[in-house]
Amino acid sequence: xxxxxxxxxxxxxxxxxxxxxxxxxxxxxxxxxxxxxxxxxxxxxxxxxxxxxxxxxxxxxxxxxxxxxxxxxxxxxxxxxxxxxxxxxxxxxxxxxxxxxxxxxxxxxxxxxxxxxxxxxxxxxxxxxxxxxxxxxxxxxxxxxxxxxxxxxxxxxxxxxxxxxxxxxxxxxxxxxxxxxxxxxxxxxxxxxxxxxxxxxxxxxxxxxxxxxxxxxxxxxxxxxxxxxxxxxxxxxxxxxxxxxxxxxxxxxxxxxxxxxxxxxxxxxxxxxxxxxxxxxxxxxxxxxxxxxxxxxxxxxxxxxxxxxxxxxxxxxxxxxxxxxxxxxxxxxxxxxxxxxxxxxxxxxxxxxxxxxxxxxxxxxxxxxxxxxxxxxxxxxxxxxxxxxxxxxxxxxxxxxxxxxxxxxxxxxx
Amino acid sequence: xxxxxxxxxxxxxxxxxxxxxxxxxxxxxxxxxxxxxxxxxxxxxxxxxxxxxxxxxxxxxxxxxxxxxxxxxxxxxxxxxxxxxxxxxxxxxxxxxxxxxxxxxxxxxxxxxxxxxxxxxxxxxxxxxxxxxxxxxxxxxxxxxxxxxxxxxxxxxxxxxxxxxxxxxxxxxxxxxxxxxxxxxxxxxxxxxxxxxxxxxxxxxxxxxxxxxxxxxxxxxxxxxxxxxxxxxxxxxxxxxxxxxxxxxxxxxxxxxxxxxxxxxxxxxxxxxxxxxxxxxxxxxxxxxxxxxxxxxxxxxxxxxxxxxxxxxxxxxxxxxxxxxxxxxxxxxxxxxxxxxxxxxxxxxxxxxxxxxxxxxxxxxxxxxxxxxxxxxxxxxxxxxxxxxxxxxxxxxxxxxxxxxxxxxxxxxx
Lengths: 414, 414
Description:
The structure is a homodimer.
Chain A: H1 2-20, H2 23-39, H3 41-57, H4 62-68, H5 72-87, E1 95-100, E2 106-113, E3 116-121, H6 125-137, E4 141-145, H7 151-167, E5 175-177, H8 183-190, E6 198-202, H9 205-214, E7 227-231, H10 237-249, E8 258-264, H11 265-281, E9 285-288, H12 290-295, E10 300-301, H13 304-308, E11 315-321, H14 324-334, E12 339-343, H15 347-356, E13 361-366, E14 383-385, E15 393-395, E16 401-412
Helix pairs in contact in A: 2-5, 2-7, 3-7, 5-6, 6-7, 10-11
């Protein structure tokens, strides 16, 4: 794809420009974009109307349609999001370490932009603004490839962004949109190793899987959350109830909500009736193993498949386990290595759970719903990594940087 | 491939065991392996003989044959290497940060093993020992897939390693060898996402390219070094001569040797005759642009291809550039982002070079030959990453770990 190669080359060139910008200059650019988005809100909303008309023809409804829809308030929110990002500390330039070697060489490691970032996402125009802001803040050029359903909105948004860039003397190719939304353009992006340093898929499980399996560009996998709460033998039952209800029902459609509950057999008789009554009252369907269905009459028998499932819905699978060990083994076998919590008053159990559960975020006595860049205090988030390379857990600005070694010598040779 | 899936499952299980081992226990295991390698050197050397006989039949010679060959001294060296690794600090368990959030949650980030590491390499039996030691030290299980030319040596070595593991109660599947050395087994490893957390190719450019292009498992790309020295207008000519000679000739076959020399036009008349005379005396072939061939009669005209080439040989391409800016642009265009050095007495030039050259290691007034885990003080090295995700530059033990968030609460919900 010639178009994409050309965009890649332009992006690489602009990335050198961005890499030389000071923090103040980058802040000013992001603020200018926010300003212009508000000023040109009408043009964006009318482009969005075209997308919405198409969506209607194609019978797109529900949350998909909701995410595609822009209005004045949503444009203001996008601009406000940018203003927040503009104010964050710039991670670029941080000297992480600097040591003098015996031969007098000073070897330092400094934080630098990654270069060119590709983002493949679905029909959410707000991701266009959001991703552009985070990439510019960290001195990275970005190539955006959104879903075809949002193409008119995206074209209008990127036009405004590029206008803002030009007005401050920044190459407009720092933020580019792939206007060809065919499957081929996505595949071509996954093979654009020469110009793309990393590729971040943002969206549903299908999209992420496709990118992970087909990309030769390094990918940051964000992801699915088959999260668990384990109520230990010594758990404070009130606290356990509060945490399980919160982790399951406060926002069931997100990745850090729990999908399964494990209960230590010694507290099953006391805890299960309490929690299930509360869950039932909140319209949560309960699927349980035999121990659960024996105690809870209205529980549906759980299948092997249930333990693997991320429902993203008001459904909870419950299993009674004879020991902490079994709980840890269950989580490490069925979980998606996202967020896991134990509710316990035992020091030994808390330490073992923290150390032996293999996940991006492991909690003691708190809801898994806190796995989030804002909740962790990063001030921004581009996703939650469930892979182990580069970034694991919520990714903020720092995760959009890499490092380089800088070495000060005075004539050293080997 | 059933064999590989089974190995993957076993490796995953052993990785949980390894993750629970203390630093002292891991140290003892590596020392036991070193001990047993020496004790069983004969069995390893006689297995190696079989590989050497095959190699002779297949007409394998030169450095390939040399790297394949084991003898008593080399086995002792491998054991000594392990002993060194055993003594290094264990990076696992380091708490990188720990902060209290306004809601009382304590959010910490701790260094943990990656899990299961796959290594695909060529006919170098020493990599088998080396990789096993580094992975065990960092609590990772490893699946090794070496070149078919070394299969008998590798089988013998891994047998000894597993014997040592068993003798200390560690699951022998912590270190496994893929005995099927067909192309299919390599391809299957590249798709083993369920069981492999990362894949590290170690070897020539062809091997690395194949793995990068075909692997859906995250890869750490190690690599090619098309490195440059730039002699600035204000360079100390003696220092420049010393550094260029060292970077080109001290060990021309390695990735951190330079392949191209850029000379500022204002010193070309003085510097080129000096350096070329010295290089000629060391049998270095010189390929130059027109400015160079005009001054140096015996220089061969360089082609566009030359600027892209990693010779790994006594050949140096030389170009005269009119400015620091042109030097930086040349390096960012043709270089492989490995190691780059400027020789200068100018503060401004040094700062611009450090900041604008896009490479894993950027030097002022020193030879590029220092880009190495040992020279940087890491005490070990599993390769030099030229990619930007996870690790960039020399990779030591720390780069074989990942992190997880650990969160201490007392009932927090959202």
